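fyi for ur records
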Amino acid sequence: MTEVLLLVAVVVVATFTWRTYNGLVSLRNDVRESLGGVYVQLQRRADLIPLLVETVKAHMEHERETLERVVALRAEFREIAADDAGRLSSNADSIERHLGGVVARSEAYPELRSSETFADLQEQLAETEDQIAAARRIYNANVADFNTEVESFPARLVASGLGFSPLPFFASETRA
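which gave:
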């Protein structure tokens, strides 16, 4: 009788551990996949930066410092690993702030505002920013699900023992 109870207890614990582990792996893969979606949108924005800089340079000579900072941030982005949510988030916020400044300052340059190329780039950037925000929301929702599971009892017992820990959110200082 004791052996049967012990066997049942071992099977229950093994099944719980197995199911919890597989659930955490699935949630972690969802997080990784959604971070990839954020990265793709950030890459799209990074690809638009040289076009914007070239278009704006001719009209906004006084804004050279801001343009150079945007180019430097783009180069920084290229050096960040696609799975480094913390650095991606920080770089994304900096780029968003500086690009917003370039677009805001463009109001003082009528020739630039009337440029069809600039208008098209503004539209593409606005669309890309919306897609970045959507990708961030998906990533953060997946992180919330993962972190809830990792931090909840009794899954926490398995998670900590198998090396799962809470993941960082993709924070944005420039958007609510």
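The chain has one domain: 2-161. thats all i got for now
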